[in-house]
Design brief:
Strand content: 35-45%
Order of helices and strands: EEEEEEEEEEHH
Largest sheet: 5 strands, mixed
Number of strands: 10
CATH superfamily of the largest domain: F0F1 ATP synthase delta/epsilon subunit, N-terminal
Number of domains: 2
Shape: globular
CATH class of the largest domain: Mainly Beta
CATH architecture of the largest domain: Sandwich
Radius of gyration: 16 Å
Distance between the termini: 30 Å
Low-confidence stretches: none
Helix content: 25-40%
Structural class: alpha+beta
Strand order of the largest sheet: 2-1-9-8-5
CATH topology of the largest domain: ATP Synthase, domain 1
């Protein structure tokens, strides 16, 4: 019998996903990490990007976009606490392109450091959404 790890992906809106997985990939603050069953305990922050959950039979991979958050790993459980989370297939490319355009415009026009940082963070989130959409498009 193949070993699995339980995965919970939750955001302020509620639970997005709960189920078993063969492998989980997440955008940790220092780079993408892979989590397999019996992984050592870990607590880290997540940046905007794609969380991928590989089904126990390895035939399917589910994708979720998160805007950042935290990740807790225990040997038999992975919990993604996302600021916001959505299934990648539900992402709106037109909205992401518009968000990127607005963020780029905001970055150009800002002199206040706090406003600049907020605009740059929005730009990073929009770019991460577009990468997730592109990756999903290539899978099809």
């Amino acid at each position: 019998m193949a070993h699995t790890i339980h995965v919970d992906i939750v955001s302020a809106e509620g639970q997005i996903y709960a189920g078993e997985a063969h492998m989980v990939f997440a955008p940790a603050s220092e780079g993408e990490i892979g989590i397999a069953p019996r992984h050592a305990p870990l607590l880290t922050t997540l940046k905007a990007g794609e969380v991928r959950v590989q089904a126990p039979d390895e035939t399917e991979e589910l994708s979720f976009f998160i805007s950042g958050g935290a990740l807790e790993v225990q040997p038999h459980m992975v919990t993604v606490l996302a600021d916001t989370a959505v299934r990648a297939r539900d992402l709106d490319e037109a909205a992401a392109l518009e968000a990127r355009r607005r963020a780029e415009e905001a970055v150009r026009g800002r002199t206040d450091l706090i406003e600049l940082a907020e605009a740059q963070a929005e730009l990073v989130r929009a770019a991460a959404q577009l990468r997730a959409i592109e990756r999903l498009r290539k899978k099809r």
